[in-house]
UniProtKB/TrEMBL annotation:
Annotated GO biological process: aromatic amino acid family biosynthetic process
MF annotations from Gene Ontology: 3-deoxy-7-phosphoheptulonate synthase activity; aldehyde-lyase activity
One Pfam family this sequence matches: DAHP_snth_FXD
Alphabetized UniProt keyword annotations: Transferase
SUPFAM superfamilies, alphabetized: Aldolase
Gene assigned in the entry: aroF
UniProt source species: Candidatus Allocopromorpha excrementipullorum
Domain DAHP synthetase I/KDSA: 81-323
Residue stretches making up the DAHP synthase ferredoxin-like domain: 1-67
InterPro entries, alphabetized: Aldolase_TIM, Class-I_DAHP_synthase, DAHP1/KDSA, DAHP_snth_FXD, DAHP_syn_2
Protein name: 3-deoxy-7-phosphoheptulonate synthase
EC number annotated for this UniProt entry: 2.5.1.54
Amino acid sequence: MIVVLKDNPDQKQLDNLVSWLKSMGLDIHFSKGETATIMGLIGDTSTVDIDLINSLDIVDTVKRVQEPYKNVNRKFHPEDTVVEITDDVKIGGGNFQVIAGPCSVESEEQVCLVAREVKKAGAGLYRGGAFKPRTSPYAFQGMRDEGIKLLLEAKEQSGMPIVTEVMDISHLPLFENVDVIQVGARNMQNFELLKELGRIDKPILLKRGLSSTLQELLMSAEYIMAGGNERVILCERGIRTFETATRNTLDLSAVPLLKTMTHLPVIVDPSHATGISGLVKPMAMAATAAGADGLMIEVHNDPSSALCDGAQSLTPEAFADVMRSIEQIRPYAYRG
């Protein structure tokens, strides 16, 4: 349920209303925009008397929300959320960021070299896989805790905040100095992990599951936000369809659709979506034009020798070319 307050509501009446609603076991989420202040009531609102609340002097309108997601719902929070990674690096609300780096951390030389190259090209955050979920148990699984140490070394050298994927709750102590924790597509509905991430004060990059609907993605984000962590970034990374020409099918319509459904930032991963390096540039340009708040692009200094996903990785030179192209498109991107 949403309660829209009138301008400059009487504080005593507002406090009484909040106390009464909380006595009914409801949580209250306040959102102050440029034109209105909204109270989002979270919990079982079936017994709340809408007419009674609507009759109060401080209340403008009252509406029931049909969607099962509340915290992530744009109706509860009309203004775009801006997720602050550092003082200088923000995502959402007009802040566009590119996250770039290798699919997998392989060596200190590789991870630090790529970090320098993507920063020079304009990337704002550095990504690298320390823990790698693989379909085959015989495939390279990542360098794990040693990989995180190498990412932190790259962070020290480049000054860029780092993004890497968590696989299990037990690994979280290793992520203390990681700036953004990524939840991969396979873990999007790992609800116990999502609950735990809701208890920490760190940005979470949540990827859409391989066969998940947008509502299911938002419900997973709701798990994190319901735990108290509001610093969530959504990532469209392609979904599984009958088409086999590409690794996945990039659902670009998800970007403007999610913008109407939620206030959270939305970025796009064209590398995993297509699985083909030659398609990364046009899909990155299209995602930018569609209004994405950022991109996640895989970059490797020697893609042909990469231990993981070399076919979809760009060379540093190709990445720099993509950056120049998207910068030309950004002024004309869809704003909603």
